[in-house]
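ASSEMBLY PREDICTION REQUEST
Request ID: AP-0331
Submitted by: J.K., bench scientist
Number of chains: four
Total residues: 268
Priority: normal
Notes: Please return the full assembly, not individual chains.
Input sequences:
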Amino acid sequence: MRMTTQGDYALRCILAIAYKSAKGPVAISRIVEEEHLPSDYTEQLMMKLRHGKLVKSVRGVKGGYLLNRHPSRITLKDVLEAVEGQAFKVICGHKNGRKKKMCSGECVLKGVWMGLKRKIDGYLENKTIASLMK
Amino acid sequence: MRMTTQGDYALRCILAIAYKSAKGPVAISRIVEEEHLPSDYTEQLMMKLRHGKLVKSVRGVKGGYLLNRHPSRITLKDVLEAVEGQAFKVICGHKNGRKKKMCSGECVLKGVWMGLKRKIDGYLENKTIASLMK
DNA sequence: CGATACCCGATGTTTTTTGTCAACTATAAT
DNA sequence: ATTATAGTTGACAAAAAACATCGGGTATCG
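STATUS: Completed
Returned structure:
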């Protein structure tokens, strides 16, 4: 099990915007410089955050990104889901010949993994961008 | 964030051995058939479990694997660490030009990720093979 | 000795993750 | 209006991780 840099990057971006958007939109170029992130990749992530309604964009000169709601109403889970689909993906199953066969109800492990997922989701739901800013 | 099939497979194997080793060692061939796992790959995983001292092997005809300690003393974390190094790997950092620069102390996110790691490890430490057998 | 089953290193394939590129559109400032 | 800035979009490429296979070994039982 491992985390992805995607999630880490996305959180850095959101956090940077939360801190610096008081006087207008924050441009990707600025985030990228200050956080030392790969610029085109970051752009993609910002797109996902926008599609996930976590940020809104302003185009043109002086443009950039703003948070779409108050930092206290954006959880880490929201951010990770926006860029990764799910904060934690359970892949419980095995190959049976050629086709993948997912676990059925009787599978003990499925329960374990889902329990873990709940734990992880719970942790991430209870941390907001605002809570990281203190 | 996602889990790996490796971890899932390894747990299935350990569980299968726990259930079936009463009358002697359990062969990989048997586990592989009953659990529908890829056989050579499973062999690799069993090797890792052996190096991690979770199982012991018996060679030759009628050979196979046995648990190296009581199911109640093998946690899921033990198993995952044996095959994956760490149950949950934190990759907190970013590229700065060419060289990777890891987070320093001031990094807020590092704390978040480490907190999550603790949560995950805790969950996995508190589940034993025995507890899955009920 | 022969059949079984673990041992082990090397190699190959697939998928996911990470990163790059180029052409486009909207906006502000001049 | 023109130009520079900055987001939009989709396709592509590289790297890493995960998943899997292969082949030649060694130990043990019958």
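REVIEWER COMMENTS: The first strand of chain B starts at residue 55 and ends at 58.
SIGN-OFF: pending second reviewer
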